[in-house]
Amino acid sequence: MISILVLTLNEEINLPRCLESVSWSDDIVVLDSGSTDRTVEIAEAAGARVVYRKLEDWSEHQNWAVTSIPFKHRWVYYTDADEVVTRELRQELQMIARAPDTAAVAYRVRFKNQFMGRWLRWSSLYPTWVLRFFRPEKVRWERKVNPVPVVDGAEGRLAGHFLHYSFNKGLNAWFDKHNRYSWQEAQEAIRSLQSGQLSMADLLSSDTVRRRRALKELSWRMPFRPLLRFLYMYFLRLGFLDGWAGLTYCRLIATYEYMIDIKVRELRRREAGLPI
Questions:
Q1: DSSP state of 38
Q2: Which residue segments constitute the domains of the chain, with CATH numbers given?
Q3: What is the C-alpha separation between 65 and 7, in angstroms, rounded?
Q4: Which of 62, 101, 133, 162 is the most exposed place for a label (fewest CB within 10 A)?
Q5: Average pLDDT of the residues of the chain
Q6: What is the pLDDT averaged over residues 102-112?
Q7: Which residue has the higher pLDDT, 208 or 84?
Q8: Model confidence, pTM
Q9: What share of the chain is helix, strand, coil (3-state, %, to 5)?
Q10: CA of 254: how far to CAs of 157, 167, 228, 268, in Å?
Q11: Which residues are within 8 A (CB) of 31 and not within 5 positions of it... i.e. 6 or more apart?
């Protein structure tokens, strides 16, 4: 009734729990990007179909998945390996899939970010709505990193949550991943600044997804971005209520923003022919 799409690269630590949470599906597809650990072995042992494709660009990778993989069912739930589908969310997904027809062709879901043994209720900017459940022919993605979905039809929102264990592989893995992401985000920032793309109407939109995207574009044009991001998360969004975990998380995200900023400067110096 529902197909599952899981994107993996060396996810032997996270994958068992993720696959267990979606074991109710009879069509689990693991799109692997060349894992060198036990990821593929674990996926096959769980009965998943494993498809291989090298990952170079996130949106291109996800677009390839929805257009090239023959899913068994018309509804697909996409999950990263460090995410867990809760029982409440599963029941909601199955109810929609059983309906003969629905107005929406895609649904957004909130998640609970887990760090240091707790849910980061405040500092993680909850609720953040991400597209996870969709008709594959109705969705495509844009941007090289942190892709933005473009939906051909109506969207809905689900009441259930999934759990996100983004630090489960350790801080070294988190820094490695965000080092790669920061370079791609810097390239996106350069493109945004050069295009002059900023919608003031979207900044005032009641649609939280459009407003969040516009705020991202605005942030590229603001000074002291890492500091502002920390102050926003820790004080304005009450991240201090998450205790030590919240303080650590806010500092990590501010560090990530700083990595993006210095790589934007690097790209500009390279374009001007200046030494790094």
A1: S
A2: 3-164 (3.90.550.10), 171-271 (no CATH)
A3: 9
A4: 101
A5: 94
A6: 97
A7: 84
A8: 0.92
A9: 45, 20, 30
A10: 29, 16, 8, 21
A11: 5, 6, 7, 8, 51, 52, 53, 61, 65, 69
Q: How confident is the model at residue 195 (pLDDT cuts 50, 70, 90)?
A: confident
Verify cis geometry, omega within 30 degrees of 0, for the bond prior to 127.
yes
Q: Which residue in the block uniquely carries the two structure tokens 């980061």?
A: 120
Say if residue 170 is exposed, middle or buried (CB neighbours under 10 Å; 0-12, 13-18, 19+).
exposed
pLDDT at 145: 84
Q: In whole angstroms, give the CA distance from residue 234 to residue 23.
A: 37
Q: How many angstroms separate the first and last alpha carbons of the chain?
A: 54
The pLDDT assigned to 211 comes to 72
- Tell me the mean pLDDT in the region 175-197: 89
Residue 200 pLDDT greater than 70, yes or no = no
Q: Which residue has the tokens 């201090």?
A: 240
Q: What are the CA-CA distances from residue 29 to residues 8, 23, 98, 163, 248 (Å)?
A: 10, 12, 21, 20, 35
